[in-house]
Amino acid sequence: MFYFILIVRCMSLMLNCYSFLHKCFLLLEAKKLASQYQKEEEKCNSGMETCEEVREKAEEALSA
Q1: What is the residue range of 2's domain?
Q2: Is residue 64 predicted with pLDDT exceeding 80?
Q3: CA pseudo-torsion sign 32, 35, 39, 40
Q4: Number of domains the chain contains
């Protein structure tokens, strides 16, 4: 009976450990995705700034 209780407790600890590792993995994946989205946002913002600069120069050239 003692060994059965010990095995059950050990299995419970293993499940808790697995659950913790799974949550860590999900958190790392979320951070990785957030980083990728941030990089894409920076590229987009940079492209918008370039587009605005070109538009302003074109307007200046047309008004001159």
Answers
A1: 1-64
A2: no
A3: positive
A4: 1
CA distance 34 to 44: 15
Q: What distance, in Å, lies between the first and last C-alpha atoms of the chain?
A: 94
Length of the chain: 64
- Cα–Cα distance for residue pair 64/54, rounded to 1 Å: 15
- pTM comes to 0.57
pLDDT tens-digit series, residues 40-62: 998 888 888 888 888 888 888 88
3-state percent breakdown (helix, strand, coil) of the chain, nearest 5: 95, 0, 5
| Angle, vertex CA 7, rays to CA 4 and CA 13, nearest 5 | 145
Residue 12: phi and psi, rounded to 5, are -65, -45
